[in-house]
Write a structure and sequence with these properties.
- The complex is a heterodimer.
- Chain A is 58% helix and 0% strand.
- By secondary structure, chain A is mainly α.
- Chain A has one domain: Ammonium transporter fold (Orthogonal Bundle).
- Chain B is an alpha/beta fold.
- Among the domains of chain B are: 189 residues, NADH-ubiquinone oxidoreductase 51kDa subunit (Rossmann fold), CATH 3.40.50.11540; 67 residues, no CATH class.
- Chain B is built from 13 helices and 18 strands.
- Chain B has a six-stranded mixed sheet, with helices on one face. In chain B, strands 1-12-11-10-13 form a five-stranded parallel sheet, sandwiched between helices. A four-stranded antiparallel sheet of chain B has the order 3-9-8-5, with no helix packed on it.
- The chains are: A mainly alpha, B alpha/beta.
- Chains A and B meet through helix 1 of A and strand 16, strand 17, helix 9, helix 12 and helix 13 of B.
Chain lengths: 332, 448
């Protein structure tokens, strides 16, 4: 007879999904955008990504060691944070600043709150905001695509979001040198390293939807809210809406950052409220704020509200129909 | 529901959540074999949910198959009968597979399988007689729950019951005994259905089967059609093969569109759900009067040399059963009583088969799917798959902090422990374990 039988609680079968597998899917989904950023900004895009990833992985390793906790590098989440952080930075950012960003994301935002699943705001997003506040000039140096990002005298340009700010009432003719819609899709415009190529991000997003890593609820309502808001803000100008959707970090934010498990509600209703909130704050900042772009702030702000949203949207258990039933009886 | 034409119905409503499991119905085409009479059987006095029985035989007594050896005067209980003929060699504490120690009667076989002379078919003409007969038969829910059947059938008169649902979903992977019952004993099932329908006055009977068992439909439909079911009250229904389709509340929802409220029974919303094998047994019992002394089980899993469906006397030692199935072909690492989703991992083979056990599964290392346990990433999969609309990840959190108030607020007691959440969890969290702890926390709280 066997000497060692495992006795554990049911179920004795497990699905094939694993945390590592999910994170790997996210990494795969980010690859197209990474390739496109290398096309537009040269090898520096890859080096910058390598630096943030290395910084995140190392921070996580050291942090867990110091805190005497088990090593969690195997879940690959630090790599995902690293890539997403790099995507949110200008390709020209000094590498040491990028490294600091990685440390902030992992040590301050993630590990100090208990590690994976416990952080209350998106690590990459928070790191980006801290960098933006700390190094405003370096974090706003958007070079024209197709140049070598290593060169010191690369030509800079305004991002479409900054340009659109002058399109009062959605009148695009007021904007000079606006890239075409095709260029917006492909990413031939100024912006953060990974956010420029909308089509690559959309492809990655669909891959995640297909693999059921993310649910369509958050991207749909986030992008949808921005679209509806911009439709009215732009006086019904569809072209203006398209520019608003493809510009800035909306696609990156809606597919990859607002859908972050740890910082979005687990209930479906909660996801809808969360995504609409993100969309509204993004739009309000874009139209009325002094900043040209609001995706990161909107996500962070909504992240903070997640526990409350979740509390309000917890589902009633199966068959819980007290009030409805009372009504039915009255009818009968 | 309102379809008048005979034929196969489709589910009225889809249940929420659930998971897609690999069916592994390896033994589906294996006819039920009868196992040779074992040397001895151990009959525990607790083989049902409810009050344990008291032994009514003593050491040295000669008993025959079907002779009552344990009974209780309490309502929620079911008597125990001798499953082989022979001599009582011990009456005392026995250890069950789940580690519980209870009174038990050990019978040494005389190899004759002599039938008890007191056995005679019961006279059943009304509800009271039916319930009394079912109680005497010792029948408990054969699907795995082990709830005394007579309690279920004894519906208070003030409850308005219209629908009988025959549960043949068998949504647990591996297990195929209900499937075999449908194929081999379809006539009995229909007979059982008629008896229950006529005596308890059901307006409609729905025999519900998962859509991955087309062969059963053919057989059942043929018999149902040739049956003299004049008002066409008996209907077959296909259900989506999605675990946990066979769970009682899911079954009621799919078959009738009604939802059983938390803490209520199907009878509160006009339904009674019976396991298909239990139904067939009732028909056989009323015909022959032979109580529940044997049952069919599926023996399968990666470590079993010859997976089989076998019929064994209740109380047969697990080791004897495994030996009959060719023994272990590789070293088992996990032994399970029941299915892999809700079954019980047991700690050894030296334990008897009880009435409610429908399978023995033995897995070796390779099949023993244990996921690496990591921290919860709040992916929400457990919330998506929960058929009861609960939030398992929150239950885990409050269970760890033993927060009885919060646990009550998130309705832990509604959980039926189907295991879908833990199955789906990418971080391999033992959610069902935490849910059981949570229920324990609530029990302790209310006991204070």
């Amino acid at each position: 007879m066997a000497k060692r039988l495992t006795v554990s609680a049911s179920p004795h079968m497990r699905s094939a999904d694993t945390t590592t597998g999910i994170m790997l899917d996210v990494i795969i989904a980010l690859v197209p955008a990474l390739v496109m950023s290398a096309v537009y900004f040269g090898s520096r895009a890859l080096v910058l990504t390598a630096v943030t990833v290395a910084s995140c992985v190392l921070s996580e390793f050291v942090c867990r060691k110091v805190m005497k906790r088990d090593n969690t590098l195997g879940d690959l989440s630090a790599i995902v944070t690293g890539i997403i952080l790099a995507f949110n930075l200008p390709a020209t950012l000094p590498l040491w600043m990028a490294a600091i960003g990685g440390i902030i994301a992992i040590v301050v935002v993630k590990q100090m709150f208990g590690g994976i699943g416990q952080n209350f705001v998106n690590p990459a997003m928070t790191a980006r905001i801290i960098l933006m506040v700390s190094f405003p000039t370096a974090m706003a140096k958007w070079i024209v695509t197709g140049q070598n990002a290593w060169s010191v005298d690369a030509v800079t340009s305004a991002t479409p979001m900054a340009q659109l700010a002058s399109a009062k009432g959605g009148d695009l003719s007021l904007v000079e040198d606006l890239p075409s819609i095709a260029e917006m899709l492909l990413g031939k415009h100024g912006g953060s390293m990974g956010e420029v190529c909308s089509i690559a991000l959309i492809c990655g997003g669909f891959y995640l939807l297909l693999r059921k890593v993310i649910s369509p609820v958050i991207p749909f309502f986030f992008i949808g809210t921005v679209a509806v808001f911009m439709f009215f803000a732009g006086g019904g100008n569809i072209e203006f809406v398209i520019y608003q959707l493809l510009g800035g970090g909306l696609m990156l934010g809606a597919f990859f950052m607002a859908t972050d498990y740890a910082t979005s509600p687990i209930t479906k209703k909660g996801k809808i409220i969360f995504a609409i909130g993100c969309g509204l704050i993004t739009s309000v900042i874009r139209i009325f704020g002094s900043l040209p772009e609001g995706v990161s702030f909107s996500i962070i702000l909504m992240n903070i509200l997640v526990p409350h949203i979740e509390n309000f949207t917890l589902s009633k258990p199966f068959g819980f129909v007290k009030e409805k039933k009372a009504k039915k009886e009255v009818k009968a | 529901m309102s379809k008048k034409t005979p034929g196969v119905l489709t589910a009225v409503r889809k249940g929420r959540g659930g998971v897609k499991v690999t069916h592994h119905k390896n033994t589906a085409e294996m006819a039920i074999e009868r196992m040779p009479v074992p040397q001895k059987v151990v009959l525990p006095m607790q083989q049902h949910i409810g009050v344990p029985c008291t032994p009514i035989v003593k050491v040295g007594d000669t008993v025959a198959v079907g002779q009552k050896i344990g009974d209780s005067d309490k309502f929620i209980s079911a008597p125990i009968h001798a499953s082989i003929s022979g001599t009582v060699t011990a009456v005392g504490d026995v250890k069950l597979a789940n580690g519980i120690i209870t009174k038990g009667v050990t019978i040494e076989s005389d190899g004759e399988m002599r039938l008890y002379e007191g056995i005679k078919p019961p006279v059943v003409t009304n509800k009271a007689e039916l319930c009394a007969a079912v109680r005497e038969s010792g029948l408990v829910g054969l699907g795995g729950a082990g709830f005394p059947a007579h309690v279920k059938l004894n519906i208070p008169d003030d409850k308005d019951i219209d629908t009988l649902i025959i549960n043949a979903a068998e949504c647990e992977p591996y297990i195929t005994v209900d499937y075999r019952e449908c194929i081999e004993n379809a006539e009995n099932i229909l007979k059982g259905v008629e008896i229950l329908k006529d005596i308890l006055g059901f307006k409609q009977v729905i025999i519900a089967i998962e859509d991955n068992k087309p062969k059963v439909f053919e057989i059942m439909k043929e018999i149902a059609d040739r049956d003299n079911d004049k008002d066409d009250a008996i209907k077959l229904m296909t259900l989506r093969s999605r675990y946990p389709q066979g769970a009682e509340k899911m079954m009621v929802l799919s078959a009738t569109g009604r939802k059983v409220p938390p803490g209520k029974l199907p009878s509160d919303i006009g339904c009674v759900v019976m396991n298909v094998t239990s139904t067939a047994f009732i028909a056989r019992y009323i015909e022959t009067g032979k109580p529940l002394v044997s049952r069919s089980i599926t023996v399968d899993g990666g470590a079993i040399a010859e997976p089989k469906n076998i019929r064994v006397p209740i109380g047969t030692n697990i080791q004897d059963i495994i030996d009959f199935c060719g023994g272990f072909k590789s070293e088992p690492r996990k032994l399970i009583f029941g299915g892999p989703m809700m079954g019980l991992a047991i700690c050894g083979t030296d334990a008897p088969i009880c009435k409610q056990n429908n399978a023995i599964l033995a897995f070796d290392e390779s099949k023993d799917l244990v996921k690496k346990e990591r921290a919860c990433i709040r992916c929400g999969r457990c919330v998506d798959v929960c058929p009861m609309s609960l939030t398992p990840t929150l239950i885990e959190r409050y269970s760890r902090t033993k927060d009885a108030e919060k646990l009550k607020a998130i309705n832990v007691t509604t959980c039926m422990e189907c295991g879908s959440c833990a199955f789906a969890c990418p971080s391999g969290r033992p959610l069902v374990q935490y849910i059981r702890l949570a229920k324990q926390v609530l029990r302790e709280e209310s006991g204070k």
